[in-house]
Specification:
Layout: H1 2-18, H2 24-38, H3 43-77, H4 80-92, H5 97-109, H6 114-132, H7 136-153, H8 158-166, H9 171-194, H10 221-228, H11 230-238, H12 249-259, H13 261-277, H14 284-297, H15 299-318, H16 320-329, H17 335-350, H18 353-371, H19 375-386, H20 395-404, H21 408-436
Helix pairs in contact: 1-2, 2-3, 2-15, 3-8, 3-13, 3-14, 3-15, 4-5, 4-10, 5-6, 5-7, 6-7, 7-9, 7-21, 8-18, 8-19, 9-11, 9-19, 9-21, 10-13, 11-12, 11-13, 15-18, 16-18, 17-18, 17-19, 18-19, 19-21
InterPro entries: Glcn_transporter
Protein name: Gnt-I system high-affinity gluconate transporter
Transmembrane segments: 28-46, 58-76, 96-129, 136-154, 174-197, 218-242, 254-277, 298-316, 336-369, 412-433
Length: 437
């Protein structure tokens, strides 16, 4: 009976977001209270569960996501993203232009949230289209595939960061595994798949033709690359720090502090503020105003994450998480595939990759302890499912359609298929890793 209640609550959540057009944060709160009542939690304790769930979920996560938003803002405002693109374009040449744009999308997509990266990089795609007279989708899909994999698989993006926190996965290890999963996913969904789209007609709107910017206004290429990738270097490097302490308690404490994702993001932001801000003669007030704006832009993401935490806590406090673990744990299905399929179904119904990932995580979390599945791989399996079958209920679908001026048919044929390829290759890579690690 409790399992049916959970299924009913998830269906209600999907319906009030899709049909009722209720904001996902409010939808999570409404469904959390309803679930608490139906699952027999005393009315006086429901609000306590909501507070605990929201507090536990946002804890350190809010700091990491906010610092990540600020970091992405300075990368964009300083012109570092544009400079990275120019350097790669010159290095790869016209023959390998797709690969240049894909790598640009991957590098720039790591610090930037998806919508910001999309709006920032699409005009760069169009500038290449106009300059080299090449089909827009043939050029654009590789870059967008790269943006997609960073969004679904790599911290500090909200969904993989939140899932890693929820499953008590190691963020550095998740990042390393994420790279292994992301690279083949974006190559197959990007340059390889884009070859089939050469004949799809797309005439980008004149509105999106980028304005020329003087090179003198941009920071150096070395500065841009090192600073943009600094969180990656630091997070990956922190994975080996514990092995360097040799039992020294003082070193262990220092390395533990330096390996913390909050410390990593703060150090990266401080360095970026100097190298891409102050050093480029940007005024401190303007830099700080930009940081404030960046946090406003991701406020709703934080609230949605908080709402998912509330629902997760209701499931835990009611005891239904244990029932789910016992039921699903007895299924003869790989838990990673189960997480992938659940995220796929919710993604199709809701549209939002972040909401799909977090909703799945709240349900699937009990399996981590029962089955002993690698929590880092579960983060990536759910991430792969959350990218599947993007269609008309996904804002990214419509942004892509309008920016590239496509018909619905061609949008499905290009965007939806690209996102699905990312998800399928992603889960296959996760299962391959599961055999090795």
């Amino acid at each position: 009976m409790t399992i049916l209640t959970v299924v009913f609550c998830v269906i209600v959540l999907i319906l009030i977001i899709t049909w009722g057009k209720i904001n996902p944060f409010l939808a999570f709160l409404i469904v959390s209270i309803m679930a608490g009542v139906l699952l027999g939690i005393p009315l006086g304790d429901i609000s306590k569960s909501l507070k605990v769930g929201i507090g536990d979920m946002l804890g350190s996560l809010a700091i990491i996501i906010c610092l990540g938003a600020m970091f992405g803002k300075i990368i964009a405002d300083s012109g570092a993203a544009k400079k990275i693109t120019e350097v790669l374009m010159k290095g790869f040449g016209e023959k390998y232009i797709q690969w240049a744009l894909m790598i640009t999308g991957f590098i720039v997509g790591i610090p930037l949230f998806y919508n910001v990266g999309f709006v920032l990089l699409v005009p760069l795609i169009f500038s290449v289209v106009y300059q080299y007279k090449l089909p827009a989708l043939y050029i654009g899909i590789p870059m967008l595939a790269a943006l997609s994999v960073t969004h679904g698989f790599l911290p500090p993006h909200p969904s993989p960061t939140a899932l890693a926190d929820l499953f008590e996965a190691n963020l550095s290890t998740t990042l390393i595994y994420g790279f292994i999963v992301a690279v083949p996913s974006m190559i197959i969904a990007g340059p390889i798949f884009a070859i089939t789209l050469k004949n799809v007609q797309s005439k980008p709107l004149d509105l999106f033709i980028p304005k020329e910017t003087s090179d003198r206004e941009l920071p150096s290429g070395i500065n841009c690359f090192i600073t943009a990738l600094l969180p990656v270097f630091l997070l990956a490097g922190s994975a080996v720090l514990p092995y360097l302490s040799s039992g020294n308690k003082t070193l262990e404490d220092i390395f533990s502090f330096l390996a913390d994702p909050i410390t990593v993001m703060l150090i990266s932001l401080i360095i970026a503020t100097y190298t891409l801000g102050i050093k480029q003669n940007l005024k401190m007030k303007n830099i700080m105003d930009g940081y404030a704006d960046s946090v406003k832009d991701i406020a709703m993401i934080l609230l949605i994450v908080a709402g998912a935490g509330a629902l997760k806590q209701i499931f835990i406090d009611s005891g239904v998480s244990t029932d789910i673990a016992n039921l699903l744990g007895g299924w003869d299905v790989n838990p990673l595939i189960l997480g992938f399929l659940m995220a796929t179904i919710i993604r199709i119904c809701l549209g939002s990759a972040t909401v799909a990932g977090l909703t799945t995580a709240g349900i699937i979390a009990p399996l981590i302890a029962v089955t002993g599945v690698n929590p880092n791989l579960m983060v990536l399996a759910i991430g792969a499912g959350s990218l599947m079958f993007s269609h008309v209920n996904d804002s990214g679908f419509w942004m892509y359609k309008e920016y590239f001026n496509l018909s619905l048919k061609d949008t499905f044929k290009s965007w939806t298929v690209m996102e699905t390829i990312v998800g399928v290759v992603g889960i296959l890579m996760v299962l391959l890793l599961d055999l090795i690690v």
